[in-house]
Write a structure and sequence with these properties.
With 133 residues, the chain is an alpha+beta fold. The protein is built from five helices and five strands.
């Protein structure tokens, strides 16, 4: 992999992601980074996020409708997506290593990895729903 020229802005984007666990959008990262780099453009944030994702240093999450989100945790893990508020968070559960083998048995090709999202309503939204009833 080609070595990248050092960039303080890219380092700041990476640090921002590593210190957040809410799987922020590029816009949310841009808002956070602007405190340190007031002249940074949204385009620069997008370019650096895409570069980091393409290099495998972060994950790009496409959870259905809505903007892409980003995750600094590149280890295999599952995500929950709330269909009401749009929150995306990690599920604290073990991944199933047999899923790739089972899928490979069915596909006639080679499975290298998989991504799993669980969709539903988060606890906070359920609580609000119950309070409004």
């Amino acid at each position: 992999m080609k070595t990248l020229k050092h960039s303080r802005q890219r380092d700041s984007i990476m640090n921002c992601l590593m210190n957040r666990h809410d799987h922020p959008t590029a816009d949310a990262i841009y808002t956070s980074i602007r405190r340190e780099f007031p002249n940074i453009s949204l385009g620069t944030v997008y370019r650096n996020l895409n570069l980091l994702a393409d290099r495998g240093e972060i994950r790009r999450l496409s959870c259905g409708s809505g903007p892409e989100r980003f995750d600094a945790d590149t280890h295999p893990h599952y995500h929950f997506v709330c269909g009401v508020c749009g929150a995306v968070y990690d599920l604290p559960m073990e991944t199933d290593p047999l899923i790739d083998a089972r899928a490979q048995d069915c596909c006639g090709g080679r499975i290298d990895s998989h991504t799993t999202y669980f969709y539903g309503t988060c606890g906070d939204c359920l609580k609000k729903e119950e309070e409004s009833d």
